[in-house]
């Protein structure tokens, strides 16, 4: 490597990798800096792009140590040195992207590892820049490469996928689907048919032995299980929204039972791991995130086949505990360092958005909104305000339908689907679907134009006098 390359690689190895290891993808980043992957030009340029980008951000930080800066452009305003590193980052990014396209065009079907690894790195690069739409376009480009090679993503009508013989690829094949599904589940319940046909939860699970296996293996096994579980949740919720008059197929109920059984096994595994005395700081931090996601899955999988979503009402205590765990992580400075935040932000927004979506207890919902407002702007890669506006529209509709005894009946429960143009095409609106159809089975949709903070109106309808705006997004 030339001198410049060595500087950026060292920065990736010493600054970036250690922070990214704080999430439960630690073994992936350590594998990258081990040197084997760097034999691939596309991976090498991706690593250098991230190293240069993070170097530009560090040079661009104001001397006061403030961290409330979302975009690279804000960082670059603080000096020409930062601009120089940023130009290098874009140069390496462009080379990596061109090499990735070439590799995809002449893909040898049995060796997708380099292309998927490169995509993952470029996704991290785009998230660091605050460009989630571009990041998820890259994910959409790479996920089809997994078809037929990974049990995680395959067509329902295709023969069973054969696992890639490369253990390193198996260790990281779940990360892109995890990022994609966490983002989509937080932001939109729309599930394109071509995507749902790729997803499967019919696969064998690996379980680590806490007494023998490394923390890296634990995080890899958990990551695969978590990915398949949130895919199953999205499939189930979307199936119920599309097939309101149909019973849930027995095969889906069997998968739910299997996942709940595995979840209990994971409960004991995580308890044993938490007792370990010799766990590095990054491992302890990652384990805390796993514990948050375990509790989230307990709620999601237990309730996902209840079409009326009344089951969620039984989990108010769990929702409350989930918020407390998220707040602890948000307020822990060691957990919110860039670029860990790229994955941590996704990992914390998901449980909080699920709470706002599915917990009908007004006070708990408001606590989740407060917690989301506490998330530092520096660890969010998109417009969090826009997402909250969409969620709050459904909350308002449900408050308007809440009975005098505090219960929100099924016919007054709504789901935020997405944002888009109104039927007339003259304004941007949020689209909502009522859980219960009309008497003849007709699905009920509603459009709301959300251009102001709905919290005061929500609390006025609920008769709530609490202050839920103590923090800014």
What can be said about this structure in brief?
This protein is mainly alpha-helical.
Helix content: 55-70%
Write down the overall geometry: globular
Percentage beta strand: under 5%
What is the number of helices?
18
Please give a structural write-up:
By secondary structure, the protein is mainly alpha-helical. Among the domains are: 1-145, no CATH class; 399-462, no CATH class. It contains 18 helices and three strands. A three-stranded antiparallel beta sheet has the order 1-2-3, covered by helices on one side. A hairpin with a 6-residue loop joins strand 1 and strand 2 (428-434). 46% of the residues are buried. This is Transcription factor domain-containing protein. It comes from Capronia coronata CBS 617.96. Keywords: DNA-binding, Metal-binding, Nucleus, Transcription, Transcription regulation, Zinc. InterPro entries: Fun_TF (IPR021858), Transcr_Regulatory_Proteins (IPR052360).
């Amino acid at each position: 490597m030339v001198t410049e390359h060595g500087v950026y690689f060292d920065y990736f190895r010493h600054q970036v990798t250690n922070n990214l290891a704080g999430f439960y993808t630690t073994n992936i980043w350590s594998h990258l800096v081990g040197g084997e992957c760097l034999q691939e030009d596309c991976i090498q340029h991706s690593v250098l792009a991230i190293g240069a980008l993070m170097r530009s951000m560090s040079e661009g930080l104001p001397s006061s140590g403030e961290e409330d800066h979302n975009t690279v452009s804000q960082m670059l305003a603080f000096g020409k040195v930062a601009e120089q590193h940023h130009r290098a980052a874009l140069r390496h990014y462009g080379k990596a992207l061109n090499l990735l396209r070439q590799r995809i065009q002449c893909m040898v079907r049995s060796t997708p590892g380099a292309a998927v690894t490169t995509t993952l790195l470029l996704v991290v690069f785009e998230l660091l820049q605050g460009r989630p739409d571009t990041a998820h376009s890259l994910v959409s480009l790479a996920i089809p490469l997994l078809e037929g090679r990974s049990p995680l993503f395959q067509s329902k009508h295709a023969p069973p996928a054969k696992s890639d013989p490369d253990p390193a690829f198996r260790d990281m094949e779940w990360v892109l689907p995890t990022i994609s599904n966490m983002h989509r589940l937080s932001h939109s319940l729309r599930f394109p048919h071509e995507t749902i046909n790729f997803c499967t939860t019919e696969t064998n699970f690996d379980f680590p032995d806490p007494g023998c296996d490394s923390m890296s293996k634990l995080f890899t096994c958990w990551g695969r299980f978590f990915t398949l579980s949130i895919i199953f949740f999205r499939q189930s919720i979307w199936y119920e929204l599309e097939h309101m008059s149909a019973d849930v197929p027995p095969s889906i109920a069997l998968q739910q039972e299997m996942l709940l059984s595995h979840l209990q096994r994971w409960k004991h595994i995580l308890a044993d791991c938490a007792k370990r005395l010799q766990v590095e700081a990054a491992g302890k931090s990652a384990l805390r995130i796993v514990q948050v996601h375990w509790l989230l899955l307990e709620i999601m999988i237990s309730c996902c086949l209840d079409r009326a979503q009344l089951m969620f009402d039984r989990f108010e205590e769990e929702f409350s505990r989930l918020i407390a765990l998220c707040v602890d992580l948000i307020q822990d400075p060691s957990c919110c360092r860039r670029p860990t935040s790229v994955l941590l932000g996704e990992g914390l927004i998901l449980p909080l958005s699920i709470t706002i979506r599915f917990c009908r207890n007004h006070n708990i919902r408001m606590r989740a909104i407060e917690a989301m407002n506490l998330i530092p702007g520096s660890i969010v890669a998109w417009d969090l305000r826009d997402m909250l506006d969409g969620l709050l529209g459904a909350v308002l509709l449900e408050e308007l339908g809440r009975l005098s005894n505090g219960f929100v009946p099924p016919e007054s429960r709504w789901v935020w689907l997405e944002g888009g143009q109104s039927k007339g095409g003259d304004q941007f609106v949020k689209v909502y679907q009522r859980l219960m159809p009309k008497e003849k089975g007709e699905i009920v949709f509603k459009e709301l134009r959300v251009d102001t903070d709905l919290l005061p109106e929500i609390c006025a309808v609920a008769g709530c006098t609490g202050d839920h705006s103590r923090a800014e997004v």
